[in-house]
Structures are given as C-alpha cells and as structure tokens.
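Archive maintenance. Older records in this collection stored only the sequence; we are now back-filling the structure field for every entry so that each record is complete. The fields below show one back-filled record exactly as it appears after the update. Entries are processed alphabetically, and Plexin-B2-like is next in the queue.

ARCHIVE ENTRY
Title: Plexin-B2-like
Organism field: Notothenia coriiceps
Length field: 133
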Amino acid sequence: VDIHIPALPTLESTDRILCKFGDFVSEGAVVIEDGKLQVTCALPDPVGIPPTTQQQDYVSVPVKVIVNDKIEVTSGEYHFYNCAATVRKNQNTPCIACVTSKWRCQWNAQDHSCSDESDAAGGEFIVKTQQVC
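Back-filled structure field:
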C-alpha cells in the first residue's frame, strides 16, 4: 500500500523505514509517484487482520511509519474492509447493500454472495458496483 506523507523528512540511503499495522511490522520503501514522495508498505496477511464486528463491514487498524526505529513520521488508521460483511448491514436487500458500499464490491446473483469487484468476474449473474440489482 502507498502512504502519502506530505512532510516526509529528507532520508539518507542508510535510513531504515518501518511500517506498523497493529502488531505487524514490515520494511517500507520510498517511491516517487506523480512527482510525490510516498512510502510503500507491505500489508499483513489476511489471517493477521482482526475480524470485522457484527455491526461493521471493516476493521480499523492503527498504522505508523517510523524511521530508524525511533522517529514516527506519520500515524493514523487503515481500514481493512470485508465485502461479505456489507450484506449484514441490510439483510433484506443484500444486493443493494453490496453494490452501494464504499468498498467497490460486486454481487453474484447466482450464489448470493458479495465480494471484491473484479474485472475477471463477469456474466449475467454479476452485478458490479453502482449497477442496479
């Protein structure tokens, strides 16, 4: 994932960047995209992400970017979403709940499931984001 840090300090080649998502720690890398400095971080494996609660379709995990194990250059929350959980918000109209979620989910009318939108999945049974159910 790319994290834009407007006030990223000047870094030396010997500086070490760490990305922390909750308890998960990975090495970060500085990249230039569209003329802006960004830090690229690995995300934790799905099994390391806390589950969504019954009332939500996402879980917030604290995120920090740290330089040389001591300088915190930014922090915030990262939202890990679960398209399958969007239908819990409105079980009477699961297709609408799925395709109108802010997570870009798609509805499979054949097996009645909500999943991440994918260009690979298609056909008459797939309802894409913002399409009519």
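Update note: The chain has two domains: 2-81, 83-127. The first helix runs from residue 83 to 86.
Entry marked complete.
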